[in-house]
Structure formats: C-alpha cells, structure tokens
Write a structure and sequence with these properties.
There is one protein chain. By secondary structure, the chain is mostly helical. It has a single domain (3-114), classed as Fumarate reductase/succinate dehydrogenase, transmembrane subunit (3 helical TM bundles of succinate and fumarate reductases, Up-down Bundle), CATH 1.20.1300.10. The chain is built from four helices and no strands. The longest helix has 35 residues, at 3-37. The protein is elongated and about 50 Å long. The model has no long low-confidence stretch (mean pLDDT 93).
Length: 117
C-alpha cells in the first residue's frame, strides 16, 4: 500500500474514532451527572453497573476508540513539534496505544468484576 493510502486510512481511523468518542463521552458524562444529581454514591453506582455486560461493552468500545484516536494525535504532535524521526514517533505512538488499550481494558474488567463480589 502506498504512503498516501496509509495516511488516508490513518486519517479515517482518527475521524471515526472521534465520532465514537464524541458519543461515548456524552453518554458517560450525562450518566455520571444524572447519577450524582440523583444522590447515588460510588458504592451504589458500582452496585448498579458493576457486573453489567452492557456497561462493560460500552466502556470497552470507549477504550478501543481512545486507544485508536489518542496515539494518532500524539504521533502528529510529535512529528510537528519535535525533531523525532517518523519511525521513532510511530514507535512511541504504538507503545502509547498498547498502554491505553491494556490499562483501559483492565479498568473495564476490574469494574465489571466488582459487580460479582
């Protein structure tokens, strides 16, 4: 595949992940505002949402979108603001993507498992 083709796919991946993130952030913040204004404590939120497969799926998709979107932006900033070689910027972005994905999915799994307790 040509460099232009790869750049087009990366551009598209960032735009699609941004759309997913826009919805996910809105739903998350709306849910948290409603929960807190409704007087729910953290323990009550965990009791209601922990162990919930729908919530785990939602947050799993949220994490996946963040793990796609943020590293692409990081790579762009590194290339524009530093003298890093593009391969080094790719490596840094790749490591960051894996870290976001692994840590985020671990958090989702941990929260889901709290409902089983």
């Amino acid at each position: 595949m040509s460099v232009e083709g790869i750049q087009s796919r990366v551009w598209l991946a960032q735009r699609l992940s941004a759309m997913v993130l826009a919805v996910a952030v809105t739903v998350h913040l709306g849910g948290m505002i409603l929960a807190v204004q409704g007087g729910l404590t953290a323990a009550e939120i965990i009791q209601r949402v922990g162990g919930n497969g729908v919530a785990a799926s939602f947050y799993g998709i949220f994490v996946l979108a963040a793990a796609v979107h943020a590293p692409i932006g990081l790579r762009t900033v590194l290339l524009e603001m530093t003298a890093l070689n593009p391969r080094v910027a790719d490596g840094v972005a790749g490591v960051f993507a894996v870290a976001v994905l692994v840590l985020g999915l671990r958090a989702v799994l941990g929260f889901y498992q709290l409902g089983a307790v």
